[in-house]
Design brief:
This protein has helices spanning about 25-35, 60-75, 85-95, 105-115, 120-135, 160-195, 210-220, 260-265, 270-275, 290-305, 350-375; strands at about 10-15, 40-50, 75-80, 100, 200-205, 235-240, 245-250, 280-285, 310-315, 325-330, 335-340. The protein is of the alpha/beta class. Strand 6 and strand 7 form a beta hairpin. It has 11 helices and 11 strands. The longest helix is centred in the middle third of the chain and has 36 residues, at about 160-195.
C-alpha cells in the first residue's frame, strides 16, 4: 500500500515555485492538506526553479537543504506539494533516507482517513492500488527472484510478477463491486426520474461549506468540519419547498486543484450523481482570496466527469466574513445566477430556498410540456 503519514508524524514540507502563479494560496492549501492528514509540520523548504529536475524534482542543492532540515528538526517524512514520478520518489528517498510523499499520495491518504461508507472505502482503495500498480518497478530489495527452498520451489516467479498479479486481481474485484453499487445508484435515479423530482447536487471546492449548507437546508445533521475533504460519501435528502413540492438535494465530495486522476476514475459512481443532476449549486468561499482559481478548478473537474453542461447557480457563501449582504442576482434572461448567503449563520438561506422553489416549478413545467408533447406524438 502507499506510504502515508502517521498521525502526529513530523514532516518537512517542500513547495517550489515553478512559475505557475498563486504560490501563496497553493502553499496555504498544502499546509492545510498536511494538517488534515495528521502530519506535524517540522519545517518548510521553499525555492524556485525554471523546471523540475528529472532525477529528484528539486535538484541536488535543494535536496541537500531538505536533508539538513529533516535532520535538524527530527522529521521522519518529507512531503512535496508536487506530483513526483516513481523514479523521482525513489531517488529522493535514497538521498534523504526518509519516506517521501507527493501531493497525490497525500490527497489519497486524506481520502482514506475520511471515507466512512463501504463504497467510499472501496473507491479509495481502488485509487490507491491503481496508483501503486504504476510504481511497481524492479530494483526494490524485496523484489529479488525468489530463492529455492521449502515452500518456494517451483516456476521461479519473481516477487514483482506476484505483486502485479495480486494487485490486478484485487483491482478487478474492486471494480466489479463498485459496478454493482453503480447499478444500484442507477436504479435509484430512475425511480426519482419517474417521480419527476428536481435533483440538486451541491458542488464546490473543498472546505467551501457544502455540508454546512446541506444541513441548513435539510436538517440532515451530516458531519461538517473546518477541514479539507470532511465529506467523501454522497448523502441525499428530500427537501420540501413551499409552493414547489419535494426536491432531492445531494451533498458531494469537494474538489481541489490537481485532483489525482485515479481518484476521479475511482469515484466515478459517486461523481455520476453530480453529472445526472438537474441543477448544481456551486458553492464558493467568497472570503477566499483564491476564489476565482477555485471556481476554475471546480469547472475543470465538472468538465472531466461530464457535468460541465448541467445548469448552475453560484452560491456565494461565507458572507459573514466579508460583510456582504444576502441577495440574489439574475442573468440577462432573468434566471437566478448567484445567491449570496452565510450557511453557518443562516443569513440568506431563505433566498436559496426560494431560488430552489423557482427552479423546481420551472422543472415541473418543462416536464408537463414534454409529457404533453409525447402524448401528442
Amino acid at each position: 500500500m502507499i506510504e502515508t503519514p502517521t498521525r502526529g508524524e513530523r514532516a518537512v514540507l517542500v513547495q517550489l515555485d515553478l512559475g505557475d502563479g498563486d504560490y501563496a494560496e497553493r502553499l496555504t492549501e498544502f499546509e492545510l492538506l498536511a494538517a488534515s492528514a495528521g502530519a506535524s509540520q517540522a519545517a518548510l523548504v521553499k525555492g524556485r526553479r525554471q523546471a523540475p529536475d528529472a532525477a529528484t524534482f528539486a535538484g541536488r542543492g535543494k535536496v541537500a537543504e531538505i536533508a539538513a532540515a529533516a535532520v535538524e528538526h527530527g522529521a521522519q517524512l518529507v512531503m512535496f506539494n508536487h506530483e513526483l514520478s516513481a523514479a523521482q520518489q525513489r531517488n529522493l528517498e535514497k538521498a534523504l533516507e526518509r519516506r517521501v510523499i507527493d501531493r497525490s499520495a497525500l490527497i489519497l491518504d486524506i481520502f482514506a482517513l475520511r471515507a466512512k461508507s463501504r463504497e467510499g472505502q472501496l473507491q479509495v482503495e481502488l485509487a490507491q492500488l491503481q496508483r501503486l500498480s504504476t510504481r511497481l518497478v524492479r530494483g526494490w530489495t524485496h523484489l529479488e527472484r525468489q530463492k529455492g527452498g521449502i515452500g518456494l520451489r517451483g516456476p521461479g516467479e519473481t516477487q514483482l510478477e506476484t505483486d502485479r498479479r495480486l494487485l490486478g486481481k484485487r483491482v478487478a474485484l474492486l471494480k466489479e463491486r463498485l459496478k454493482q453499487l453503480e447499478r444500484q445508484r442507477a436504479v435509484q435515479r430512475r425511480s426519482r426520474n419517474k417521480r419527476r423530482l428536481l435533483s440538486v447536487s451541491l458542488v464546490g471546492y473543498t472546505n467551501a461549506g457544502k455540508t454546512t449548507l446541506f444541513n441548513a437546508l435539510t436538517k440532515a445533521g451530516a458531519y461538517a468540519a473546518d477541514q479539507l475533504f470532511a465529506t467523501l460519501d454522497t448523502t441525499s435528502r428530500r427537501l420540501f419547498v413551499e409552493d414547489a413540492g419535494t426536491i432531492v438535494v445531494s451533498d458531494t465530495v469537494g474538489f481541489i486543484r490537481d485532483l489525482p486522476h485515479a481518484l476521479v476514475a475511482a469515484f466515478h459512481a459517486t461523481l455520476e450523481e453530480t453529472a445526472s443532476a438537474d441543477l448544481l449549486l456551486h458553492l464558493v468561499d467568497s472570503a477566499s482570496a483564491d476564489r476565482d482559481q477555485q471556481i476554475a478548478a471546480v469547472g475543470r473537474v465538472l468538465e472531466e466527469i461530464g457535468a460541465g453542461g448541467v445548469p448552475q447557480i453560484l452560491v456565494w457563501n461565507k458572507i459573514d466574513a466579508t460583510q456582504a449582504q444576502p441577495g440574489v442576482e439574475r442573468d440577462e434572461y432573468g434566471n437566478i445566477s448567484r445567491v449570496r448567503l452565510s450557511a453557518r449563520m443562516g443569513d440568506g438561506v431563505d433566498l436559496l430556498r426560494a431560488a430552489l422553489g423557482e427552479a423546481a416549478r420551472n422543472h415541473a413545467a418543462c416536464n408537463t410540456t414534454e409529457a404533453a408533447e409525447a402524448d401528442a406524438a
